[in-house]
Amino acid sequence: MDAIKDIGCIVAQALGLGFVPCDIHHLTQGGKHGQKRRGHDFTIGLNPWSHRGEPFNGMSADTCEKLFGPSYAKQPRLFRQEIGNDDYLLDLQNTALDRYWGRVKTWHAA
């Protein structure tokens, strides 16, 4: 979990916004709120807006939505359509973790 916190929000990373602090979000079976968690290996980092629908760092909700897209907590269907489904986000997170731990090097053109 510390590595995910060190990496920051996976949505912000994917959007090219750089490091943004994150909450830990446990993915659930069926991808629905209130369902059983899939386990610690199915965990992603989301900023407070993307995760809980709460503006942060002095930003308004409008600003957060413009920067990060829809909130997973407030508009889960739209979040999945515009940002990605749970498995896509997990793939992004796992790739970021592999880079963090030095298992994979970021590709650069020669």
Main traits of this protein?
RecA_dep_nuc, two-stranded antiparallel ribbon, 42% helix, mainly alpha, globular, Herpes Virus-1, 110 residues
Protein architecture, described:
With 110 residues, the protein is mostly helical. It has a single domain (2-100), classed as 2-Layer Sandwich (Herpes Virus-1), CATH 3.30.40.190. The protein is 42% helix and 7% strand. The protein has helices at 2-7, 10-14, 48-52, 61-68, 76-82, 86-100, and strands at 23-26, 43-46. A two-stranded antiparallel sheet has the order 1-2. The model has no long low-confidence stretch (mean pLDDT 91).
CATH class: Alpha Beta
Oligomerization category of the chains in this entry: single chain
**Low-confidence spans: pLDDT under 50, at least 5 residues?**
none
* Overall 3D form: globular
**Describe the biggest sheet?**
2 strands, antiparallel
The SSE order reads: HHEEHHHH
Alpha carbon gyration radius: 14 Å
Give a nutshell description of this structure.
This protein has 110 residues and is mainly alpha-helical.
Detail the topology: elements first, then pairings.
Elements: H1 2-7, H2 10-14, E1 23-26, E2 43-46, H3 48-52, H4 61-68, H5 76-82, H6 86-100
Antiparallel strand pairs: 1-2
